[in-house]
Amino acid sequence: MLKGISIVVGCLVLVLILLILWQPSPQESAMSSLAAAEKVLEQVKISEAPAKLDEARRIILGMKLPQKADVAREKALGSIDAAKMEIGDAQVGQMGAISAARTQIQTAEKNLTATTAAERARVVKDQMLVLIWPVVIAILVVYLFNSKTALEVLKHMGSLVSNVKVPGGLEISFVGGAAVKQSQEEVIKGYRQQVITQYDLAATQKQISDTVERAIKEHITPFFVANHLDPEFRCTIHVRDILFQSSLYQLIDYLPRKKWAVPGRITRGRAWSVRYGLIGRCWRLEDDQKEGTIPTSAEKLIEDWGLTKNEADSGSGKQTMLCHLIRSKNQSPLAIFYLDAEKPNAFGNESRMSELNNVVGNAVRELGLDAALQEVWEKVQTSAPLIEIYADPR
Known about the structure:
By secondary structure, this protein is an alpha+beta fold. It has helices spanning 2-22, 26-42, 49-62, 70-144, 148-160, 178-205, 208-226, 257-260, 277-285, 298-305, 309-314, 350-366, 369-380, and strands at 163-166, 170-173, 233-240, 247-250, 271-273, 289-291, 320-327, 333-341.
């Protein structure tokens, strides 16, 4: 069936091309008009008046008149001669004008002949552009009626694109409004789920959560015990988001599992702008960050911490935060080992927090967490599109 359709479409294209080639160009039509005008000028005859005057002169001379009429006959012959001279002058002017007109017509024909090939090619190109889109649309319609996949693709395109303009003046408009917005949101959700799936798979294969649990058990908890601290802390890993540029992605759920694992509650897969909170400051400055007290004023959180009004009003309730920056092989930011606690100065004073930051860094290196996160990044970085949602000021 498709073979027969292809033959029909091919014949249609061939017929359109032949019609274009046989259609006379504007230059050819102009040349036909000029040739007709020249033929008309060739048919212009010299006035027959001189011949008639000569005939009259012969008749007058042959007439036998009384002698007293000789004077009148001579005057008549003189008038005939004068009339011939005037007609001769008029004929010369008339023939000069006709000759000049024919010369201009011949020049115009030469000019048209010299540009006909180039102009013909341009006309054919313009006509092809006008006629090619109906042919393309016909082919697409035939194809769509025979392809379920193509119908789904067209439906998806129509939900994302408002209109398309093509050469030849054709413009295709798609349905807009709420349907487009809803479809776009569905596409973004689909991409987000793709990111979560890819990151979950890579993190599971590299045992990221298990390694962080070991860091807590073997390094972080012993530090708190040695310093007589017993904070209700939680920690996680933030990495570069692969869906939106300039965003951070929570790679794993909060740990330790025994304290923070809640059935049905999933915290991984969330994303924040790099302009958000302490994690954003750590990422932008490419340096470790720690705070023993977090402002409770909504105004301060908005001005200094990059939170929106709603985020500042709701707040996380955490007063102690520590961000340890994990670097990639080329020393660029790779991930953030994040810890927080609800009480102020839960990790001790500033000196103790610096020591804790060093403990976290040692655990990352000793347990190979940095190398594992490097492999996670290399595995997922091409799995989903990076979308730029922030304007470039340049």
